[in-house]
Each structure stands twice: as C-alpha cells, then as structure tokens.
C-alpha cells in the first residue's frame, strides 16, 4: 500500500517551492496540483502506487486524452516529491536531506 505520510507532512514544501522557486508556476497550475494532493490524501481507496492512483482517477473521470497529460504531469510531480524527494526541476530537496 502507498505510504502517504511524507506527502501529508511535507506537501506544503512542494507548494511553497512552486510559488517561490527559481521558476514560479502559475497560480492555476499550483492550485490544480494542490487539489490533486488533497484528493490523493482524502481518498478512501488504497493504492499500491501512484500509477495505480492515476489509472483509477482516469477511469473514474472518463477523461479525454487532452486532459490526461496535465493530470499525469501533476501526479508525476507529486510522486517525485513524495517518493524521490525531488523538487519540480528534478533536484533533490536539500532542505529535507538535513532535517
């Protein structure tokens, strides 16, 4: 089962980086990522991986191919932050390495 403790405790760091990092993201993009994080954290369905979560969401939304790319991008960013401790640029989050 996917362990979401790191995401739950640290997702605000990802959001802050997106707002204040070297290349700030648009407020609408940040909002959509934050909404997806909250959906991941609040779902009653348990998943073994972020890929399983993605497939579940796509099947539930009956989404078009056009919708799937940004959606997959959001989930990939969240997964990389949660599992690999990477910021959106793919760099290891130094502030978490030494905590």
In short:
With 99 residues, this protein is an all-alpha fold.
Overview of the structural elements:
With 99 residues, this protein is mostly helical. The protein has one domain. It has helices at 5-20, 27-42, 50-61, 65-84, 94-97. The chain is globular, with a radius of gyration of 13 Å.
List keywords for this structure.
globular; single chain; 0% strand; mainly alpha; 5 helices; 99 residues
Q: How many helices does DSSP assign?
A: 5
Uncertain residue segments: 94-99
Average pLDDT: 84
Amount of beta strand: under 5%
Please state the overall shape, judged from the principal axes of the Cα atoms. globular
The portion of residues assigned to helices is 55-70%
Order of helices and strands: HHHHH
Based on DSSP secondary structure assignment, what is the total number of beta strands?
0
Largest sheet: none
Rg for CA atoms: 13 Å
Summing up helix and strand content along with how strands pair, one would put the structural category as mainly alpha
Give the termini distance in whole angstroms. 26 Å
Q: What's the number of structural domains?
A: 1
């Amino acid at each position: 089962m996917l362990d979401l403790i790191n995401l739950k405790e640290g997702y605000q760091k990802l959001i802050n980086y997106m707002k204040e990092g070297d290349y700030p993201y648009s407020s609408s993009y940040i909002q959509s990522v934050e909404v997806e994080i909250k959906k991941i954290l609040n779902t009653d369905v348990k998943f073994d991986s972020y890929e399983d979560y993605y497939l579940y969401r796509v099947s539930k939304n009956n989404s078009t191919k056009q919708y799937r790319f940004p959606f997959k991008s959001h989930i990939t960013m969240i997964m990389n932050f949660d599992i690999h401790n990477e910021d959106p640029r793919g760099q290891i989050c130094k502030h978490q390495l030494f905590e």
